[in-house]
Structure formats: structure tokens, C-alpha cells
Specification:
alpha+beta; Penicillin-binding protein 2a (Domain 2); Beta-lactamase; 22 helices; 19 strands; 20% strand
């Protein structure tokens, strides 16, 4: 019967055979198409399910001092991450995993429960490679699923707290957050590479395929800072704060010839390698961020305006008796009163506000403003340091006597320590204004002559007498060298109200040396000394002396004052009370 039906309907048999042949041909063609003609499609689909790209960490560039001493280096660390989806099926391993990485069992369990649907979660970052390797060995031994490790880099700061506010630091993702690390972040940051790997369906790496892109390390930065001078300045500033019970302080040192910042220290400071208990106030680079009224350290700049005007000579005298001057409802007073008229050098030695005011009345407030402006006050230094402030140098349409007088002896304006150091370095450089630099300079730039050379040299000699005169700022003297400078003692303005805070002072000393061929300009600022005195000539001048002495010797600057002093004369100098030039 079957045979008869097959013979009776041969077209059905041929149809079925034909359809099977067509289907077989279509399948064969599709196989050939996918494997030969369009093979990239299958490869792409396979890769999409198994090939992954893993970043290759790139370390940041090195930060060094001017002599190549490291200030910031990148060290390899191990970071552990987990796949909560994989770990969700091994709750019995959670407590063991928490113990391995030193975390709270309850906290880890809570994190895993809250992120149960995620495939990536950091477990521990920045572990020492040996520690991370030990943990991963235990993970494999205990068969804990979903735990993986990657290599990263962490910043380490060999100088620690000594250069903390200058160098700054990076965050956990190795991005600059403060100081030079932030200012030069794009230059220092490396470019991560890429590595292709094969993973199974659980996300485990089963094969390294290839390096798709090599990591490019960041560029290095050589700062102008000399770490030897930085250590010296930091030690002396810290000791001074302890001795005088001060709240804070800063010291800035500038190379007169090149404009390089050789040292910049602040107290109190912090350890950038351990920021767990960091006080945010200690992160401030006070030398660039804190603004203040500079007091009597401005008198040499005002005197420069007087000499440049041609109306005054160093030998001209001013009657300062009886030691005070009434201007409307304001009274200008001298700390060290003089019965006799004072020449211009004497005004600086005695730090006479009355004498300086009378000179300012003669030349006018506009002349003093222009001179201070030429010295860079009230302007950006161009360093590009994060958070740096420019201060305020007021300019009035009409200068009344009170505004003229106060500006001439350093009140009514606000500046930073670095601006003050820049002004004195210009004075020391014979009136040539050279841009400041926080990076090493291989060739000194061309300066702008903002003050006539003869005026600058005259003031250098006058400021040398301020330090070397019997009643001057003798505590700033440096054995073996002639140095020049001026102290300042400024009352601190009240916060939120007009006027000044009682018994709150800022003690300053600004100077340079050696006078015969100035090489270093330095500014010392000590905030709110509470014991042992508060005058700049008493508090800040000795710091200037000790740091300048060490710095000149470390830099092999030849002495220019080798005349011997008798032991008795030296003893008398050390015993003299702090009268006369106090600022």
C-alpha cells in the first residue's frame, strides 16, 4: 500500500527532498558566510561576551627639588575589588573576607547587601603589594569567589611636613588636590594604558590577550626649592613659634638674581603621608594665601619714592619731636622717640612713623602708591599657585593726609609674604624686577628696571645701617656677612569689626644679603607671639639671622665682612635691650 502511494504521488517525495536540500544549502551557505565572508561578526559577538579591556595604571611624574632630591614619588600599591553578584552566593565567606582585609564584618555585610546587584565594588585600596598578595593567596586557598586585585599607584612624600604646603598632595584616585600637585596636575598625570583579557562568564580572567595601549608615565617637575634650605628654615621657624608662643608663621626665601623661590615654609604644618587627623587650617600655604598689613617693612619702599622724586637726599633731616603727630582725629605715634631731627637713615633705624609721614606729605600719596605698585604689591605674582591671593593696594582719587601717612608706614594695604619677599628681592637686585618662579630656572630672565639703580643701591646701604647701627635691628646680624633689612610690627585687624584687636600683633622682618652683592632675599612672618616680646626686631629678626647665616654658607656665598669682633663687644651686642628700631 505504501509503495503504491509513493509511486502514485512522486511529486511529494521530490518536494520533501528538494526542501531538505534547500535547507541544507542555506545552512551551509550561512556557515560559509559567517566563517569566511562575514567572519568578523562572529568574532565581534564572541569578543563582546568574553574579551574585556583592563586599564593599565600610569604613575605620576616625579616632583624634585632643584638638586634632584625627591619631594613626591609614586609607589605601586594593590587595590582589591569584589563582584557582589558572585559573593552573594557565598555568605559564609563574608566574615572571613572582612577579617582578611581588616574591616568590620557588619560593615562589609551591609555594603554587600546594599550593592547585591552590582558587579564592581572596591574592597580595599592602596594596600602594600606584599599585603595584597597575602590576602589574595588566602582568597584562593579559602575559595572565596568574586575577589580580584589590580595594580595602582599611591603618592609618597619623602620630605613629609617640611614641604607639605608647597608640594601639596593627591587624592585616592591620584589626582592633584593641593599645592604643586594641583597646579601642575595635567603635566604630572600619566596616561593610563589598556590591556585586553579573556574572561569567563563569572568575570574571571582566563587569558591575557594583548596590550592594546601602553601606559604613558607623567612628566617630572623640578622645583626651585632647595631641600637643604627648606629643612633649615622649617627648623628655625618652628623653634621661634615655640619660644615666643606664636600661633603661626611663615618664611620665604628668594634668589635675588633669578627670582627662584629657594625655600617656603609654614608653621603649623601637616604630614601629607598620613592625613587621618588632618586639621584643614594647617594645609594653607600662608606665605601665598594669608594677607596682612606689612607695617614698617613698607618704609624702605616709601623712602624709595622719596629718593626717586629728587626732593629728598639721605642726609636731609626731619624734625620728629615730640614723637607724635595729630591729623584730625588720628594720632601718629613713634615707639622710639627722638629729641633730635633724624636723617632718612635715622628714620629707618628708629622706625619713625612721624618722620615717614612728614616725608609722605611732601611727595604725596600717589607717588608712594606708584612705587609700591612697581614693586609688585597688589598684583598677581604669576606663580599660578592654587588659592594665591593678590592682596589690596588702595588708590584714591584724592589722597587725604591720613591715607597718605598710613600707607607710607605700612597700614591701609594688604599683601602676602611672597609679595613682600619679591619687593625686597627687587630692591636687592638694584631695582631690577624679575618674575618669581617656583620651578628651577636654568637661565636668569631679563628684569624690568622699576626703580633707578642709584636709588636701590642707596637704600641697600641705608638698610645695612638699620641692621648694623647700635640701636638698630642688631639681632638680624649675620657673622661674617653684611646684611640689610627692616623689621615691622603690625597690629592685627579685628575680624568682622572695624579697628584692631588688643594685644594681637604680627611680627615681621624683611631683608637680604650679603649687601655687597645681594644673593638672597628673605621674609619672616610670625603671627601673634604671646611671650617674650612681639616686636619684629625681637621675634623675627633672630630667625632671619640664623636662616640667612646657614643659607649663605650652604650656597657657598663668600663672606664680605670678616673684620674680627672682640668677644666683649659681641657679648655687649647680645645683651643689648631691644630699643630703637622695633618696627
Amino acid at each position: 500500500m505504501m509503495k503504491l502511494n509513493g509511486l502514485h504521488h512522486p511529486w511529494r517525495f521530490r518536494l520533501v527532498v528538494g526542501l531538505l536540500a534547500v535547507m541544507a544549502g542555506a545552512i551551509g551557505w550561512r556557515i560559509i558566510d559567517l566563517h569566511v565572508i562575514d567572519r568578523e561578526f562572529l568574532k565581534g559577538q564572541g569578543d563582546a561576551r568574553s574579551v574585556r579591556t583592563i586599564p593599565i595604571a600610569a604613575h605620576r611624574g616625579l616632583i624634585t627639588d632643584r638638586n634632584g632630591e625627591p619631594l613626591a614619588v609614586s609607589t605601586p600599591v594593590t587595590t582589591l575589588w569584589i563582584n557582589p553578584k558572585e559573593l552573594s552566593g557565598a555568605r559564609d565567606k563574608w566574615a572571613l573576607l572582612a577579617d582578611l582585609v581588616g574591616q568590620s564584618r557588619e560593615d562589609l555585610a551591609k555594603r554587600l547587601e546594599q550593592n547585591a546587584n552590582r558587579e564592581f565594588l572596591y574592597l580595599a585600596r592602596g594596600m602594600m603589594p606584599e599585603q595584597g598578595e597575602a590576602v589574595m593567596e588566602q582568597v584562593k586557598l579559602q575559595k572565596i569567589p568574586g575577589v580580584y586585585d589590580i595594580e595602582e599607584f599611591r603618592r609618597f612624600y619623602p620630605a613629609g611636613e617640611v614641604a607639605a604646603q608647597v608640594v601639596g598632595f593627591t587624592d585616592i584616585d591620584d589626582r592633584g588636590r593641593e599645592g604643586v600637585e594641583l597646579a601642575f596636575n595635567d603635566w604630572l598625570a600619566g596616561v593610563p594604558g589598556k590591556r585586553q583579557v579573556l574572561k569567563d562568564r563569572r568575570g574571571r580572567v582566563i587569558k591575557d590577550v594583548q596590550v592594546a595601549k601602553n601606559a604613558k608615565p607623567g612628566n617630572s617637575v623640578a622645583l626651585s626649592i632647595d631641600l637643604r634650605l627648606q629643612y633649615l628654615a622649617n627648623r628655625e621657624l618652628r623653634n621661634a613659634l615655640t619660644q615666643f608662643g606664636a600661633a603661626s608663621g611663615s618664611l620665604t626665601m628668594v634668589d635675588v638674581k633669578t627670582g627662584e623661590i629657594l625655600a617656603m615654609v609654614n608653621q603649623p604644618t601637616y604630614n601629607p603621608n598620613n592625613r587621618r587627623n588632618l586639621n584643614p587650617a594647617n594645609m594653607r600655604n600662608r606665605a601665598m594665601i594669608d594677607v596682612f598689613e606689612p607695617g614698617s617693612t613698607m618704609k624702605p619702599l616709601s623712602m624709595s619714592a622719596a629718593l626717586e622724586s629728587g626732593r629728598w637726599k639721605p642726609s636731609d633731616k626731619v624734625n620728629v619731636y615730640p614723637g607724635y603727630l595729630q591729623i584730625g582725629r588720628y594720632t601718629i605715634k613713634d615707639v622710639a622717640r627722638s629729641q633730635e631731627p633724624l636723617d632718612l637713615t635715622g628714620i629707618l633705624i628708629k622706625s619713625s612713623n612721624v618722620g615717614m609721614s612728614k616725608i609722605a606729605f611732601d611727595i604725596g600719596g600717589e607717588a608712594i602708591y606708584n612705587t609700591m605698585r612697581q614693586f609688585g604689591l597688589g598684583q598677581d605674582t604669576g606663580l599660578g599657585f592654587p588659592g594665591e591671593r593678590v592682596g589690596n593696594l588702595p588708590n584714591y582719587r584724592k589722597w587725604n593726609p591720613a591715607e597718605t601717612a598710613t600707607l607710607s608706614y605700612g597700614y591701609g594695604l594688604s599683601i602676602t609674604a611672597i609679595q613682600l619677599a619679591h619687593a625686597y628681592s627687587t630692591l636687592a637686585n638694584n631695582g631690577s624686577f624679575i618674575p618669581l618662579s617656583l620651578t628651577r630656572v636654568d637661565r636668569a630672565p631679563q628684569g624690568d628696571q622699576v626703580v633707578p639703580e642709584h636709588v636701590a643701591k642707596t637704600l641697600q646701604g641705608m638698610l645695612q645701617q638699620v641692621v648694623e647701627a647700635p640701636s638698630g635691628a642688631f639681632r638680624a646680624q649675620v657673622p661674617g656677612y653684611h646684611v640689610a633689612g627692616k623689621s615691622g610690627t603690625a597690629r592685627k585687624a579685628s575680624v568682622g569689626t572695624k579697628g584692631y584687636t588688643q594685644n594681637a600683633y604680627r611680627s615681621l622682618f624683611a631683608g637680604f644679603g650679603p649687601t655687597t652683592n645681594p644673593r638672597i632675599a628673605m621674609v619672616v612672618v610670625i603671627d601673634e607671639p604671646s611671650k617674650g616680646g612681639y616686636y619684629g626686631g625681637v621675634v623675627s629678626a633672630p630667625v632671619f639671622s640664623r636662616v640667612m647665616s646657614g643659607a649663605l654658607r650652604l650656597m657657598n656665598v663668600p663672606p664680605d665682612n670678616l673684620a674680627p669682633l672682640s668677644e666683649q663687644g659681641q657679648a655687649n651686642a647680645n645683651e643689648r635691650p631691644g630699643k630703637g628700631e622695633r618696627g
